[in-house]
Amino acid sequence: MNAAVYLESKAKKHAFAALEAEKRGDYETAIYNLEKAVEHLATIVRNYPDHPLNHIYRRLISQYLRKIESLKKKARAIPLASDGSLDVSVKDEDESNDVPEFVMKEKPKVTFNDIAGLESVKRALREAIVYPVKRPELFPLGWPRGILLYGPPGTGKTMLAAAVANEVGGEFLYVDAANIMSKWLGEGEKNVRRLFSYARKRAKEGDPVVIFIDEVDALLGVHSTEVGGEVRVRNQFLKEMDGIQDKGEKIHVYVIAATNKPWKLDEPFIRRFQKRIYVPLPDKRTRRKILELYTAKIKLAPDVDLDRLAEVLEGYTGSDITDIVREAYMRTVRELFQKGDPQGDPRPVSMRDFMEVIKSRRPSVDHEMVRAYEEWTRRFGAV
Questions:
Q1: Which end of the chain is more exposed for a tag (fewer CB within 10 A), N or C?
Q2: Burial degree of 348 (CB within 10 A; 0-12, 13-18, 19+)
């Protein structure tokens, strides 16, 4: 699996493990798992400085660090607030009290031009969000407010949501399932209402709002072991989703949910999303564009054939391909240091460099998983 995607996945697993430990009252285990989550996210930020989602990872690191401090106080039985609740919010100095802590204060910098391929997905998002925002009078029958993006990890779902918010100049609310569920312990419905109330308020003031829910199956999927609070949170969320649909008031609040496991969602939740868009593995043309995008920053030897590489990389995700380009370049940097002349320039990356890296890196998605997505698309897809 692509290194950044793998580290993000590990961080999320530790975050959910921390949530389960907190529910049991095992604060030491919760602290340990959050520290591991911070470690994995920090590794992404440190080793992938140009990663387009680093601003989100830094935000999560800040939230998890605050949560760790809260858990440490809880473990020592020190009251944290007048009502005894945990304070895990991350507030900026210029933040008003009614702004949820998971609001991304800066507008996303990712654009559709930064995302190679996926033209059909981009077109569906433009038609569902960008066009209604720019010309609402052209949509007398309303427009979809709920959009589900599903597909393998590393195919660009988060980047697509951020790019849409950037395209319309809107506010981007990134909801991390593990952090939100932890925040919502004991006051679930209230905070769901707070999220949507804030979004509606900003939309009425003239700013389109995109609520992006990552790993939505973890937050709103049906699980075998649920407590009443989780069921109530899900039901309240469905109620709020109904509330932003066209009922006379055409405000620009959109919910984009992403999942790698759409089959974990129950049908009442699926129905709230008028658009259900499959984000597939990149085809050959898209793989070629990804290679062009990332090799533009490095020197290539004359023997590098991007068309041939695009064929060889069939079945790889966009993140896989990005990581392969990075590792092929690292081979030349490694040689430079091994020769004892780190002040010189690395040699151009050759076709052999790419092929050697590909030999040791298999695709992060197998054929059975792809077939599962295609079958779910046949049953529930709605572009």
A1: C
A2: middle
Residues 83-107 pLDDT 10s: 444 443 434 333 334 566 655 656 6
- Indicate the residue type of 88: V
Each domain of the chain, given as residue ranges in start order, spans: 1-90, 91-281+365-383, 284-363
Yes or no: domain 91-281+365-383 corresponds to CATH 3.40.190.10: no
- In the block, which residue shows the tokens 């991007």? 306
Predicted confidence (pLDDT) per residue in 9-24, tens digit: 888 888 888 888 887 8
At residue 49, the 3 state secondary structure works out as coil
- Cβ atoms of 347 and 328 closer than 8 Å: no
Q: pTM of the full predicted structure?
A: 0.72
Are the beta carbons of 44 and 10 closer than 8 angstroms? no
CB atoms within 10 A of CB 332: 18
Is residue 278 left, alpha or beta, with left meaning phi > 0 and alpha meaning psi from -120 to 50? Answer: beta
- 1-90: CATH class: mainly alpha
Distance CA 291, CA 309 (A): 8
